[in-house]
Specification:
Distance between the termini: 19 Å
Shape: elongated
InterPro entries: Surf1/Shy1, Surf1/Surf4
Structural class: alpha+beta
Largest sheet: 5 strands, mixed, barrel
Helix content: 25-40%
Radius of gyration: 26 Å
Number of domains: 2
Subcellular location: Membrane; Mitochondrion inner membrane
Protein name: SURF1-like protein
Function: Probably involved in the biogenesis of the COX complex.
Order of helices and strands: HHEEHEEEEHEH
Organism: Seminavis robusta
């Protein structure tokens, strides 16, 4: 007895499978575009990193939109009274020497495989510049680096490891952006000391600057119109010669080539594009087989 002929794909099935094939193909095209865009951005970032650092705050301010990844080398004074912690977050890439194994006493227990958790230390940094005719002072925010969460309690094991330089000092840094949650905006707990923020919140940092000036009875007790556009820098380390974690100076900074790295690299976009195109091709093949079934 001959088998009954199989029915061809219905009109609804054609629309469904056709939409899936077209949708995955469009996603593949989009990821391909993102791949080339990231290639251009990565190249520009690497070129800017190689340029000589900007040593004048005024010049850096004018060029920060044009060269957002160029290094700044500025001199000023930290205001540790306004220190803020952002986190908890993991250890930044490249902060430790490659052969260094974090000890449990100083860096917490990282045996779970998720790595030690801690906070980034953000401190106001007052920069004063003067020329023959004028003198100006501007406060910027500097992400000084990362500390383990155990440092907040100032235990015996961590005493003296958290450095807070006093007086005038020069830092190397790269501008970064404040963060703005895309969906839900978590609320910070302003009751904790030192103050801890969940993310790099520009509005919260403005409040911190105003509180510092109020406490000091500073006539500039309000954020000035110029400082409405706050600048956030992340301090970088230029050398990586320390070998023993107990001798490392905290907070830990990342090297320049790790700052501003894109969370999704061009290689990842290429992998996504390959996946979407592969799914589109497989769907097209299956749709064709279903369309010709029974013929």
């Amino acid at each position: 007895m001959a088998a009954a002929p199989q029915q061809a794909l219905s009109s609804g099935g054609k629309v469904l499978f056709g939409s899936l094939c077209a949708g995955t193909f469009v996603l593949g095209v989009w990821q391909t575009q993102r791949f080339f865009e990231k290639q251009v951005l990565t190249t520009a970032r690497e070129e800017q990193m190689q340029q000589a650092p900007l040593t004048s705050l005024t010049a850096a301010m004018h060029l920060r939109q044009e060269t957002p990844f160029r290094r700044w080398q500025v001199t000023g004074q930290f205001v540790h009274k306004g220190e803020v912690l952002v986190g908890p977050r993991g250890l930044p890439p490249g902060a430790l020497p490659k052969k260094t194994t974090p000890s449990r006493g100083v860096m917490g227990d990282s045996s779970a495989g998720t790595g030690p958790q801690g906070y980034f230390v953000v401190t106001p940094f007052e920069i004063t510049e003067e020329d023959a005719t004028s003198k100006s002072t501007r406060t910027v925010l500097v992400n000084r680096g990362w500390i383990p969460k155990e440092f907040i309690d100032q235990t015996t094991n961590t005493k003296g490891l958290w450095s807070r330089p006093e007086g005038s000092c020069m830092i190397s840094a790269i501008p970064i952006q404040f963060e703005e949650p895309k969906w839900l905006k978590p609320q910070h707990d302003f009751s904790k000391r030192p103050l801890r923020l969940i993310f790099y919140d520009g509005d919260a940092f403005k409040v911190v600057l105003e509180q510092i000036r109020d406490d000091n009875n500073n006539p500039r007790n309000k954020v000035t119109e110029e400082e409405e556009s706050l600048i956030l820098l992340t301090q970088i380390k230029d050398t990586d010669h320390q070998k023993d974690v107990k001798k490392l100076a905290f907070p830990l900074q990342s090297p320049a080539d790790q700052v501003g790295e894109y969370k999704i690299s061009p290689l990842i976009h290429a992998g996504y594009a390959t996946t979407w195109f592969g799914l589109s091709g497989a769907g097209l093949y299956m749709t064709r087989k279903l369309l010709t079934r029974g013929r």
